[in-house]
């Protein structure tokens, strides 16, 4: 026998042995049972001997996650968005006109403050957007009417007010700057609605400051970006507005969105986002004070330089070839901060408040980080020449009724 043949034979034997072991000694085992004379028939008679009982041994499995959950769960609520429905066509024919409130959508929220007879809840703007009325379902099953204190579509945050006479527990905010990638995070909320209220999921912090584009309620890009916490903690529809907490039971973020698929339609898992608690506190304090967020505006409309043909960048804008990024001004509002600073049509802004403009989205992000009344520096090209100046941000987006 050749060496190669012996190798094949040896391999075959090993495979056969392994097969027999895996099958429970198919042949030898059967003959061995027959040869022992042991009666293997199923016993007849009563089955009383087959009863079972549980042990009285108590196992203490309390973990830090459970402690954190217990500390926060009673302050987490379901937020129910109610919409008015008009009377049916049949009722209209009979001359009857009536409307009733029906649940349109559900989300989550967290009670963060009790003051006197009032309690305050933070949730997402998109949870309450378009509501005719809002109800809040407490963790004990009690349902209360809620009033909107203020909303902000840019950060997707809203503050609600309820009667606080039954509120015994409020959550506290942690410092989101102190979180670490890899740190355990927990989400509490009502995934798929209040039927699953107070659900807890666990994961880790995947990124502290992830830049993501924002979309409106119509699914279209708003032109703004948000800096959010990325987590693989399970966040599902209905979790929106609920808290992301650390193991100390502190709210470190408000769950806002998840990535379900990429631009090519590929399904993804474990990519959720929460608004950092430091941003949340800043916004809700302004909402409580003013009912809205006033952000400064320049008073211009503009287009990204990359959307302008290279030939027009040279012929009309007269830009040096070294200028590749910026925004082109194409309208200036009368008596606006931009006009008062001397900006004109076809100026190309390349830097604002000391930050270079690499895309048009950054203009809003820079402006929204400033306070009304602040004076910021600006650099722009006019007729091919670099100019510098300052702009006093005296007007807000609502005053100018534009986003820039």
From TrEMBL:
- Residue stretches making up the PDZ domain: 296-384
Record keywords: Hydrolase, Protease, Serine protease
Q: Name one GO molecular function term.
A: serine-type endopeptidase activity
Q: SMART domains annotated for this entry? A: PDZ
* Record Pfam families: PDZ_2, Trypsin_2
| InterPro entries for the chain | Chloro_Bact_Ser_Proteases, PDZ, PDZ_sf, Peptidase_S1_PA, Peptidase_S1_PA_chymotrypsin, Peptidase_S1C
Instruction: Give the GO biological process terms.
Output: proteolysis
Gene3D superfamilies attached to this UniProt entry: 2.30.42.10, Trypsin-like serine proteases
Superkingdom of the source species: Bacteria
Q: Which family does it belong to?
A: Belongs to the peptidase S1C family.
PANTHER family in the record: PEPTIDASE S12, PROTEASE DO-LIKE 8, CHLOROPLASTIC
Q: What is this protein called?
A: Trypsin-like serine protease with PDZ domain
**From what organism does this protein derive?**
Apilactobacillus kunkeei
């Amino acid at each position: 026998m050749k060496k190669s043949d012996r190798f094949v034979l040896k391999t075959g034997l090993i495979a056969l042995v392994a097969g027999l072991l895996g099958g429970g000694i198919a042949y030898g085992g059967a003959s061995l049972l027959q040869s022992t004379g042991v009666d293997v028939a199923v016993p007849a008679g009563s089955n009383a001997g087959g009863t079972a009982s549980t042990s009285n041994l108590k196992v203490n499995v309390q973990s830090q996650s459970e402690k954190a959950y217990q500390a926060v769960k009673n302050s987490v609520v379901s937020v129910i968005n109610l919409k008015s429905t008009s009377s049916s066509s049949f009722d209209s024919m009979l001359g009857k006109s009536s409307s009733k409130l029906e649940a349109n959508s559900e989300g989550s929220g967290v009670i963060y403050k009790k003051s006197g007879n009032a309690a305050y809840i933070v949730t997402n703007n998109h949870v309450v957007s378009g509501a005719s009325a809002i109800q809040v379902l407490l963790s004990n099953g009690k349902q209360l009417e809620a009033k909107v204190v203020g909303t902000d579509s840019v950060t997707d945050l809203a503050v609600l007010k309820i009667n606080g006479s039954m509120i015994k527990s409020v959550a506290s905010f942690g410092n989101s700057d102190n979180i670490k990638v890899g740190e355990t995070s927990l989400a509490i909320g009502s995934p798929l609605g209040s039927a699953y209220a107070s659900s807890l999921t666990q994961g880790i912090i995947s990124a502290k400051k992830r830049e993501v584009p924002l979309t409106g309620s119509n699914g279209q890009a708003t032109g703004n970006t948000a800096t959010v916490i990325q987590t693989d903690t399970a966040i599902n529809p209905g979790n929106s507005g609920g808290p992301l907490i650390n193991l100390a039971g502190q709210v470190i973020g408000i769950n806002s969105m998840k990535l379900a698929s990429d631009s090519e339609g590929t399904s993804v898992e474990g990519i959720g986002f929460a608004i950092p608690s430091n941003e949340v506190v800043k916004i809700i304090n302004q909402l409580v004070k003013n009912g809205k967020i006033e952000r400064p505006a320049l008073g211009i409309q503009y287009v990204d330089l990359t959307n302008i043909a290279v030939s027009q960048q040279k012929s009309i804008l007269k830009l040096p070839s070294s200028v590749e990024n910026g925004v082109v001004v194409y309208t200036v509002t009368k008596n606006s901060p931009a006009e008062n600073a001397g900006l004109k049509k076809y100026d190309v802004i390349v830097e604002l408040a000391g930050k270079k403009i690499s895309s048009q989205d950054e203009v809003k992000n820079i402006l929204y980080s400033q306070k009304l009344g602040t004076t910021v520096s600006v650099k722009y090209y006019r007729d091919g020449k670099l100019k510098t100046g300052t702009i006093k941000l005296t007007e807000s987006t609502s005053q100018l009724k534009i986003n820039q």
